[in-house]
Amino acid sequence: VGTDLQRIPSTVVFRMDLDPLPLKTVFRNALKTAVMLAETGRDIYFIIRHMLVNGLTGQQWYDRARKAGIRFLRISAPEDVTVTQSQDRAMLSIKETSLSGMGIQVQIDAGCLVVPERYEPKNEMADLASILAADHNFSGVLASSNIWMGPAGSQRRGLYFVNSEDDETDVSLAMETVFLDIADTAVSQTEAVSDVSINKKRCQGCL
Question: I need a labelling partner for 95 at 20 to 30 A (CA). Which of 26, 105, 135, 199 fits?
Fold first, then answer.
């Protein structure tokens, strides 16, 4: 955005719906930028399919965005948005999901259309996932089957990872998980528990 706010038009649209969807870190930075612009009196719109907020601070930024007057327009697919360029402006026609049954489309005359950088995982990611016995998340990057960043599921015990999609909230949760897991392992090696049974048939997917 820079510091020269006078150069930024009065109406700005952020397109956060295109495939592949932006990473959480990109979404968070876009939300922070949008809030700053909205608090200067500009009209700010977000076009979304899913609102990606992460952790307590992510929710706080979303609430702040709503309070600042940012309008979130939800669509079902990128094809629900038609963009026509007219000189230095972008004319958008949007099939918003809550209005689709009424045959109404949202029309926006935007002085600035922001399309964030989108990450596409390389082909080698599948090979790396196979080596680590790990899963992919919806973006195609490595991810633990446990959304709270548990063990990677590797044959090598004690292997954890944080991928390129994770932000500071994920890293903090990952570190907490690692330390708790280490502590639990240390306790289990020094204390024998004889009165606990495990239904292996029911839990075999996570053992």
Answer: 26
